[in-house]
Amino acid sequence: MQDTAKFWDKTAPKYAKSPIADEEAYTYTLERTRTYLSSEDSVLEVACGTGSTALLLAGSVRQIVASDISGAMIGIGEQKARDQGVSNVKFVKAELSDNSVESDPYDAVLAFNILHLLEDLPAAIGRVNRLLKPGGLFISKTICEPESGMPFKYKMIKTVLPLMQWVGMAPFVKFMSIRELEGTITSAGFKIIETGNYPASPPSRYIVARKS
To answer: How far from 61 is each of 101, 108, 168, CA to CA, in Å?
Structure first.
């Protein structure tokens, strides 16, 4: 994972300045997520990036552990928290497998725009299950392969991605169908209770799943 961490460290300054690709879809899923959280909840966010989502949700929970493998991303997130006066978000440089993300079991684990970047997705989701309380929630959003047709932009990404990866300009990516993604989540001991595509094309699959 070291090469991946270096990639995101290098990307962090540009990433922090980039606008949200689909503001309407982002806001909608943020509000849907907020409805599942309570003021007493302890939450883990996996791959928090520069912390924008964690900071927006901080007022809805007791605490958030915001983790990312990139120290540069974490540093930007910590500065944003200081600037905004947010004190209940703890930023941690860590992979999902690290002990530093462990605590008393979490009420919810969030994983936005990361599952398609993980090389061993079943192991990662199994780890999420173990970090949750009985009945805890796993809330994720993941770009998936189109179910019918394929937008030109998506075709181009699939075409040029191997070259970009070879020269170190792109991370590992696994292209999954919605069915494959949801099957991996349910196989790890979760019951899916809400889904949706935001945006619809290519589908960015929003999934709320409860630990069985």
So the answer is: 17, 10, 38
**Which residues, other chains included, contact 86 with Cβ-Cβ below 8 Å and sequence gap of 6+?**
55, 58
Q: What is the CATH architecture assignment of 2-146+173-211?
A: 3-Layer(aba) Sandwich (3.40)
Reduced to 3 states (helix: H, G, I; strand: E, B; else coil), residue 42 is: strand
142 membership: H or E segment, kind and range: strand 132-143
Which run of H or E residues covers position 198? none
pTM for the structure as a whole: 0.90
20 DSSP 8-state letter: P
- Local confidence band at 151 (pLDDT 50, 70, 90 cut-offs): low
Distance (Å, rounded) from C-alpha 203 to C-alpha 197? 5
Q: What is the pLDDT of residues 22-66, one digit of tens each?
A: 999 999 999 999 999 999 999 999 999 999 999 999 999 999 999
Q: Is 174 helix (H, G, I), strand (E, B) or coil?
A: coil
Question: Domain locations in the chain?
Answer: 2-146+173-211
Distance between CA atoms of 44 and 131, rounded to whole angstroms?
A: 9
**Sequential DSSP letters for 74-107:** HHHHHHHHHHHT--SEEEEE--TTSGGG-SSPEE
